[in-house]
Amino acid sequence: MFDSNLTHNGEQKNSNKGPKYKINIEGVIFVWGSDEITSNEIAELGGWSISEGVIMIDKNGNETSLSNNEVIKIRPGMAFSKKLTFKRG
Asked: 21-88 architecture in CATH?
């Protein structure tokens, strides 16, 4: 599976180091170890091909299609994953 800053069960490696970034991908919360993630990494974490696309949804329900390898800045904490979510599209 995806080799990233996550363990196989979604826990952050070296969890005592640095902030924890939580990303909501189709209702599943993933813990990420960096303040950036690409659309390709989101698709891979979500379990689909980047060719299906990635859509970012803000807290107001506005949807934005992301381009291939687009970089998204993320903030630590659970509140962020409630304000910004991702889905295939």
From this structure: Roll (3.10)
